[in-house]
Amino acid sequence: MPGTKIGLKETISIGIGGMVGGGIFAVLGLAVSLAKGGTPISFLFAGLIALITSYSYVKLSVKFPDRGGTVKFINSGFGTGVFSGGINNLLWVSYIIMLSLYASAFGSYAPNIYAITSHKALDVHLYASFIVVFATLINYYSLEIVGRIEKWAVIIKLVILLAFVFIGAYGLIGNPNLSQLAIENWEAPIQLLAGGMVIFVAYEGFELIANAAPDIENPKVNIPKAYYYSVGFVIILYFVIAIITVGSLPFGDIADAQDYVLAEAAKPMLGEVGFTIITIAALISTFSAINASLYGGSQVSYEIAEDGELPHQLTGNLWGQPIGLFITAILTLVVANTLNLESISTAGSIGFLFIFAMVNYVGFKLSDVVEGNKIIPFSGFLLCVVALVVLIVQQFGAHPDSIYIALGIIAGCFILEFIYKLGIAKK
Fold first, then answer.
1. pLDDT tens column, 174-188
2. Which residues are CB-contacts of 180 (< 8 A; sequence separation ≥ 6)?
């Protein structure tokens, strides 16, 4: 709530909650399919880019504390023109893609409840659509409830995941599948990097801290700590989860359960009980992520419109909430029901890598203004660009449709902004 200051613990929870949402449940199996035994290294690659990019976010958040977050940073670095508008449009669309990823993950895990209870499961798209509609209704009913759900969901999913880590680490002792982590089972370095970039969406949530910057107490101290602690914690968490998963299950079983592999990985340790607990954790996590991201997406569209980069009508309300909430929900339903999980993950990763490349460039460009180091943000910019190229080249060879979709989305965001600006100029 504006005017209410939040402390370091709460700020860290925003970062961790944004990253450990539905991402790890959705993309872990995808990462293993690409990197095999080197999956933990892929998560480290992605985490390194997130950690370096967080430096730019730290400096920009302290200098430009604004609820627009990334939107504010892009406009501060490039002004409010077609280029910045296109990037900000892409940010909104990337929120929608993330929502679709969470909805798809929910749809993949939900049938497991029926498998556990011996009931017939429904189509995954029905579950995905239901949870988006349900979360949208909650957002319209009460934002306070959204906040309460997110607060408890963060605690529940972290407790379950940490329990999975400790029990799983013990369960690796004597497991014959542990040999799958050996270097001879790793894919080529370029494939490991590509694997990390496809699942980069699992890290993007740290940028939510930027939106809370105006409300953080002692910002010069707490903002840097919040970014670095949350990103560092999640890197370690994902790395260990990847080790346990690859070391617990044969590659064939991981491939068969790719969309809900974390639940399957709990079976060798805890049997059906573990499978059930992780399934429930996944449903809670993806639901809370959808809940929070719907509101975040509507706020992004509001900020973009307020800066004159989208029609001013988007600053208006519909049924007591920003009209962007309704549009975000509708577009999420469309994407979740038309694209497969890999296409959604690839599009989301390409979108955020491009956005983070631009934020790093702004950090480099405004280094004197924000009193920051030039080398770190420029390194982040180069790393994001290299990772983006590797991801596009690798996925184009294996799944060209995913790349066409992702590049089409990016081009569409800039074309939309150009048409809008052209229309404004003619008036």
1. 888 899 999 999 999
2. 36, 37, 246, 247, 250, 251
